[in-house]
Amino acid sequence: MSSPDIVVIGAGMGGATIAHALAPSGAEILILDKGHQLPDRPENRDARAIFQRGFFRPQESWYDSAGKPFNPGNYYYNGGNSKFYGAVLMRYRAEDFDGLAHADGDTPRWPFRYGELAPWYDRAEALYQVRGETGTDPTEPAHGGDYPFAPVPDERPIAEVRERLRRIGLKPFPLPLGVDIERWLSHGRTPWDAFPDARTGKMDAETCALLPALTHANVHLRNGVEVRRLIAEPGGGRIEAVEYVEGGETRRVAPKLVVLAAGAVRSAAILLASGGVANRSDMVGRHFMNHNLSAMIGIDPRFHNDSIYQKTFGLNDFYLGDGKGGPPLGNVQLLGRVSGAILKSDLRRVPEFLLEAMSRKAIDFLIMSEDLPDPASRVRLDGERIVLEWRRSNMTAHEGLKRVMRAALRQAGFPLVLTHLFDRRTPSHQCGTIRIGSDPAAAPLDPFGRAFDHPNLFVADASTLVTSAAVNPSLTVAALALRAAGHIRETELRA
């Protein structure tokens, strides 16, 4: 297919969702994905293989600002990073679209308010079959209705922790999750957070969007394809070709419309390799954001944690403020059950049986704070090397959130509290490198994700996010992709 109507680059949350939404239009759609389908194999449920041996981590290196290589931990399978995600499908709060004042700086306003995206959030929750409960999160924005399914139930020890936190005045709420728990557990009694899913119960981009899209005769997928650059027509204007490598050969395809959705880092790298495509503003690759994340483990010798999956509730008590009239701190949510085999990946000198005994007395949380957009925090290229110059920000909020949660856990009966800050090897919700906006001098894309400089180029992944907020970005990426697809159907595919 040398001249399809639409080429979608990438089959992650953004690419698969937009392909799904455009498939019924009848347009000839070609999806080019760097990965392949994840096979159903024993390592998918083997914590030692995943965490200790890094079985699924790609053999690639990016580079930091000092030229030091590191393994970034992104995954190249159909469905992208959603194959390994914690399946938390949470909306940005309404206030996130208005700009927030943080201890270390302010976030900008989005080019539209929450109400513009709300109906697309409703559709994204339906597509990804979200399990949840409205009315329990004090920061929850308006919904068009209830969640499609009831929440994933707490296991006995998790219900106990939830009650302990309620008794000290906090407001734990059911995490909105994309996982069919009965189906997941029928294939192996493990957590799903960071465990890959070979179509066994997790509602990821492949399961919910890509595979249904491929049932349409007009949608085609090529795997093992690495897109190198986009080629604009002479003098700029429209994108006339996509250049990619397949089977060691360099090839081109000439679509009428291009949707770039290779991920926040790789999408930026593709544009940077394309000789100024969509970069009149000099903002491509800039404003890279990566949530500030820490694991927090509360230990109580009297507590017995025999849960399997654990990850069922969150806390937003400190999302919009510190509880004392101060600035926002962030979101807290349970991690997937952290076993001794998982702890061993960071504590290699400690016998695994001791770590397992400790884990049975522990509860595990993810502490998440917003990373603020900074033009100096960026993706750039050094020849063909991807250089990631990430500048952490807003650590005052992150340390504040750890402080209040440490105190809360101790008050709730967990006297020993340990924390671990995640580094750049963890793909912590990367976003912001090709952001949307209203001013072409300040953003590469218009509010629908269309390049200001190229009318037939859209971007539909986490790179378009104006702010990182302090919640998992997957649902917002899906909602934006559905909104962009609606715009494409109205403006480009109308008969």
TrEMBL record:
<dbReference type="InterPro" id="IPR036188">
    <property type="entry name" value="FAD/NAD-bd_sf"/>
</dbReference>
<feature type="region of interest" description="Disordered">
    <location>
        <begin position="134"/>
        <end position="153"/>
    </location>
</feature>
<keyword id="KW-0274">FAD</keyword>
<dbReference type="Pfam" id="PF00732">
    <property type="entry name" value="GMC_oxred_N"/>
</dbReference>
<feature type="domain" description="Glucose-methanol-choline oxidoreductase C-terminal">
    <location>
        <begin position="426"/>
        <end position="481"/>
    </location>
</feature>
<dbReference type="InterPro" id="IPR007867">
    <property type="entry name" value="GMC_OxRtase_C"/>
</dbReference>
<dbReference type="Pfam" id="PF13450">
    <property type="entry name" value="NAD_binding_8"/>
</dbReference>
<dbReference type="InterPro" id="IPR051473">
    <property type="entry name" value="P2Ox-like"/>
</dbReference>
<keyword id="KW-0560">Oxidoreductase</keyword>
<comment type="similarity">
    <text>Belongs to the GMC oxidoreductase family.</text>
</comment>
<feature type="domain" description="Glucose-methanol-choline oxidoreductase N-terminal">
    <location>
        <begin position="200"/>
        <end position="291"/>
    </location>
</feature>
<dbReference type="InterPro" id="IPR000172">
    <property type="entry name" value="GMC_OxRdtase_N"/>
</dbReference>
<dbReference type="Pfam" id="PF05199">
    <property type="entry name" value="GMC_oxred_C"/>
</dbReference>
<keyword id="KW-0285">Flavoprotein</keyword>
<protein>
    <submittedName>
        <fullName>Choline dehydrogenase-like flavoprotein</fullName>
    </submittedName>
</protein>
